[in-house]
Amino acid sequence: MKTLIRNFTHTFRRFFTASVLNIMGLAIAFASFFVIMTQVDYDLNFNKGYKDYEHIYRVEVYPNDDNGWQTWMPRPLCELIGNGSPHIQAISIVNSFSGSAKFEVGGHQFEEITLSGFGNFMKTFQPRMIAGSADALERQGQVLIPRSMAMRFFGSIDAVGKTIFEGKQADNRLLTVGGVYEDFPENSQIRSCLFLPLRSENNKDNWQNWNYNCYLRTDGTLDPDELNRSVFQRMKEIVPERVSAMSDNEASSFLRFTPIADVHFSKVGNKSASSRTTVYLLLCVSFLIVIVAAINFMNFTLAETPMRVKSINTQKVLGATAGSLRMGLVLEAVLVSIIALGISMLFLLALRDSGLQDLVTASLDLTAHPLLLASTLGISVLIGMLAGLYPSYYATSFPPALALKGSFGLSVRGHRLRTTLISFQYVVSIVLIVAALSVWKQNRFMLAYDMGVPRENIL
């Protein structure tokens, strides 16, 4: 280890400019990779924080050609769907217009996101309960709150049985905490909010009020087509006026069951939904950035190698084996890569409050992405090993006597490798620059397009 540190510090001082450029280039690449991958991770794992998320579906309905596919529907239709198959384990009927509300706790005002539904509607999403029970939602006036909200309200997760007031305490709309659950991940459809029950009689048989969203938990063997036909037949019996204009062929596409993991990419109910193509493009860009940085690192290392041949072979004359020298050179490259990773993390810590967070939806808190951190560390070690393998083999491949006599440059094969790497590096860089300029021009076109109206006078 002492030899490794000594060789590293000596090389760093001798090739100071190259070493700094090497480390800073890698650090910027690692920081860029981490930022982009937080967004990729956010999108690809959206709604995957629920227990057995593969069995959860959002119901979509196609009432007519004018409305197209939509997520809101009447309560009776949701209940028909829930009773339409023995493979449905739980149904969640929630108010599609839930939002934020004000609460007073201990004389302090809070504004929190709320979600209301019928019965124990959280049985579909199965939050991990810390205290109390999710069944509390079956009792009017009881609510569920997440851990973070319990800490804000009471400074403790010991909140079961405590009271909060909707609006102001003077309004006397008292609610009792029936349970505290672990916060859902940030990238979730049903987020960490205050859950409260709707009155059981609300819109019980009202087919006119299309204000509810419906989610299902199945046993994994649900046949969507069979359920679709079953619900349609029941509607023909109960509300024939709703389906009289639809043929049996149209009935087969009346309902659609979207896996909860695909909701994030669905345009139904959300025209600005994420695109899988964009996510995969970001994934490719992040790895291209790292690959270009790795090539740059290898080129710097190769450029230094001819100037280190004599010192390396002097160590061989003094008794060092070729294997130990190669291992030392590889470890030097790995150390440089790890130092660059450390600096990149410092960059992120220093810049996270400078507007960098606005570039992505996901949190840039390092502690929120342990797997991504571990993966980035693994990539940095791999880059160091790959960047050090060929130079270490080349520098120790000469007979010591010849190496100490003359000045060696790179072999023809070494020059060919550097030329290939640099060419690839330039191609990737040019492609990324052209792509970035194309996106910029497209955005400018969209913002400056003449819509035929005086936009400065429109709010």
Description:
This protein is α+β, with helices and mostly antiparallel strands and 459 residues long. The chain contains twelve helices and eleven strands. The strands form two sheets. Strands 3, 4, 5, 6, 7, 8 and 9 form a seven-stranded mixed sheet that branches. Strand 3 and strand 4 (108-117) form a beta hairpin. Helix 2 (16-44) crosses helix 9 (322-351) and helix 2 (16-44) runs antiparallel to helix 10 (370-395). The chain starts with a helix and ends in an 11-residue tail after the last helix. The model has no long low-confidence stretch (mean pLDDT 82).
Termini, distance in Å?
Answer: 66 Å
Tell me the strand percentage band. 5-15%
Q: Which oligomeric state applies?
A: single chain
Q: What fraction, in percent, of the residue positions are helical?
A: 40-55%
Please give the largest β-sheet. Answer: 7 strands, mixed
Give the number of DSSP strands.
11
Number of helices in the DSSP assignment: 12
| Overall body shape | elongated
Query: From N to C, what is the helix and strand string?
Result: HHEHEEEEEHEEEEHHHEHHHHH
Low-confidence runs of at least 5 consecutive residues = none
Instruction: Round the Cα radius of gyration to an integer and report it.
Output: 31 Å
Structural class: alpha+beta
Rounded mean pLDDT score: 82
